Amino acid sequence: MKSNAQKIALICMMVVCILCNINASNVDIDISHEETLVKAGTFCSEITITVPEGWKMAKSPDIQVLKSQNLKNFTYSGGFKQVGKASYLLAINVEVENPRIPVNYLEISIDCSLCKNICTIVSKNISLSFGITKNSSALMWILLLGFLGGFVLNFMPCVLPVILMKLKAGNSKSAIIGTITGNYVSFAAFATFIAFLKMRGESIGWGMHFQNSIFLEIATIILFILVLYSTGVITFSPSVQINSKVKHIFFSSTISSIIASAIAIPCTAPFLGAAAVFAIQGSTADLYSIFLVIATGFSFPYFLLLLFSKKFSMNFSQTSIFKKIIDGGVIITFLWVFWLLSKHLTYGAITLHILLFYFLKKRKLWAVIITAVLLLNGGLFSEKHAEDPYRNINEKLSSEIAKNKVVIFNITADWCLTCKYNKYRVLNSEKIREVIKSGRITLIEADMTGKSESLMNFIRAHNRIGIPFTIVFSSKAPEGILLGEILTEEAMIDAINVAK
User: Fold this and answer.
1) How far is CA 480 from CA 99, 401, 406, 498, in A?
2) Cβ contacts of residue 169 below 8 Å, gap of 6+?
3) CA-CA distance, 144 to 148, in Å (whole number)?
4) Residues 485-499, buried b or exposed e (16+ Cβ, 10 A)?
5) To which H or E segment does residue 312 belong?
6) CA-based, 20 to 30 A from 78: which of 105, 161, 311, 391?
7) Contact, 61 vs 110, CB < 8 A?
C-alpha cells in the first residue's frame, strides 16, 4: 500500500504532466523559406524556423517528403545553426528530374524537437516551389509562352468547329470589339473557376469542362439560340434605343465569342502547356496574369483586324456567300456539341432535348418550361457514371514494358479534335503502322471523353495538365519520352528509336 505522501506526490506529478502537455500543445513555430538556383536542375532551399520565446531546438529536425512534382533527388544533411535568440537555419537541396519544366513542387513535413521545462515535438507542413516564381526573367519567358500559346490556339484543329463563327468579327468594328471582349471575359471566368477549384482542393485539368454534362448542356442551348439568331428565326432587341444597331452587334458578338472561346480550348496548344501549368500551380496573381496574357494572344488577330479595319471593307460577312458560310459554321458547332452531350444522356433525355429545340424554334414559352422541368427531373441527370476503367493503367504499362516492348501510350477524347488529328494523321499513318509492325512495339490508347481521375493523375505526374498526351516507354526509357501536343511522324519515329 502506498502512503498518503506517495499518493499526493503521484497526483502532483500527474497534474504537472497534464499541464505540461497542455502547454506543449500550444507551442507553434513559424517557418519561412527561400529557394535559389545552384545549377541547372538543382535548387537549394534555406529554411528558417522561429520558435516561441524560451524554447530551444534540441536536435536537428526530421524532414519527410509528402508530395512532389518532377523530383529526382532530395538531400538534407541534418545540420542546423542558430541565427538569433529564437531562430534556426537549415538547408535542403533538391534536384529535379527535368530542368526544362518551369515549375517544380515539393511539400514536406518538418518535425522539430523543442525543449523548455519539458520537451515536445512540433510538426508543420510547408510547400516549396522551385523554378520561375523566384526568377523574373523566366517569368517573362512564361508570359511570352502564354501569349504565343493563345495566338496559336486560333489555328489549332480544336477551333475548327468555331472558326467560322469567328468570321463574324469582320462584320464591323463593334463586332471586332465584341469578339475581343468575349475572349477576355471567357479567360477571366476560366481563371476564376480554376481559382475556386484550387481553394476547394479539386483536381484541375485544361479543357476538362468538356467532360461535364452541365457545361455541354448550357453550351448546346446557347449555340442553338445562336443558330436561330444567325438564320433570322429570332432577333435580339436591346432595351436602349440609342445606337441600338451598334449595341446589338456588340452584344451578339460578345456572347458568340464567349461560347466560341469555351469550345475552342478543350485541347492544349503548343507553348500553352508550360504557361498553363505554371498558372494553375502558381499563386492567384500568377493565374490571372497568365490567363490575361493568353487571352491577349488569342485576341491578337482581332486587334490587328481592328487596327487595319479602315484599309479594307468590313462588310464581307454581309454578302450572301460569307453569311451562308458563317451560318453553316454555327450549325456545325451546335451539332458537334450536341453530339458530345448525347454521349452523357439516355435516349429519353436526347428525345427531350430535341423537343426543347423544336419548342425554342417555335417560341412556345410554355412548352419550353415544361420540357426544361422534365429534363431537370430525370432527363439531364439520368446519365450513368461508369467505374473508372483506367485505375490499373500503370500496371498495364509496366506489364508491357516488362515484356521488353516499346510502348506508345496515347490519351485521346471525342471532344479533342487535335487528338483526332494526331491519331488519324500520324498514329494511323502507313509509315507509323509499318514501324510498329517491324518490331516489338505496341500502341495503347486511353479515352478521356468521360471523367477518369486515374488518367488525369497520370497526366499531372508527367507535368502536363491536359490532352493531347502521347508518351513512349521502354525498359531503356522507363520515365517515358513525352511528345508534343501536335504529333509528327518524324518526332514519333525518333522517340521510338531512342526507346529501343
Assistant:
1) 15, 11, 10, 10
2) 175, 176, 178, 179, 253, 257, 302, 305
3) 6
4) bbbeeebbeebbeeb
5) none
6) 105
7) yes
**Cell 461508369 maps to which residue?**
386
Cα-Cα end-to-end distance for the chain:
80
Q: How far is CA 490 from CA 266, 273, 424, 432, in A?
A: 26, 21, 15, 9
CA-to-CA distance for 322 and 379, rounded, in angstroms?
A: 38
Element (H, E) at 51: none
Four-CA torsion 302, 303, 305, 311, nearest 10 degrees: 170
> Which residue is it, cell 433525355?
349
Residue 441 parent element (H or E): strand 441-447
Look at residues 283, 330, 278, 255 and name the one whose alpha carbon lies nearest to residue 149: 278
pLDDT tens for residues 151-194? 888 777 666 656 655 555 555 777 788 888 888 998 998 889 88
| For residues 123-143, average pLDDT | 70
How confident is the model over 358-397, as pLDDT tens digits? 888 888 888 888 887 777 776 555 555 567 889 899 999 9
* Residues ≥6 apart with Cβ < 8 Å to 172: 246, 249, 314, 315
Count Cβ atoms within 10 A of the Cβ of residue 129 and give its class: 0-12 exposed, 13-18 middle, 19 or more buried: buried
* Residue type (1 letter), 95: E
Closest CA to 330 of 343, 317, 342: 317
Residue 462, C-beta contacts closer than 8 angstroms, at least 6 positions apart: 469, 471, 480, 482
Residue with cell 511528345: 483
The position carrying cell 468570321 is 167
Which SS3 state, helix, strand or coil, does residue 430 take?
helix
* Cell representation of residue 298: 488569342
| pLDDT one-digit tens code per residue, 268-303 | 667 777 777 778 767 788 889 999 999 999 899 889
C-alpha cell at 145: 509562352
State residue 124 phi and psi, 5-degree precision: -155, 140
In angstroms, the Cα distances linking 215 to 126, 207, 221, 344 are: 36, 11, 10, 12
- Ordered DSSP codes for 63-78: EEEEEESSEEEEE---
Domains and CATH numbers, the chain: 27-133 (2.60.40), 136-344 (no CATH), 393-499 (3.40.30.10)
C-alpha cell at 408: 506508345
Residue tagged 464581307 (cell numbers) = 316
C-alpha cell recorded at residue 139: 517569368
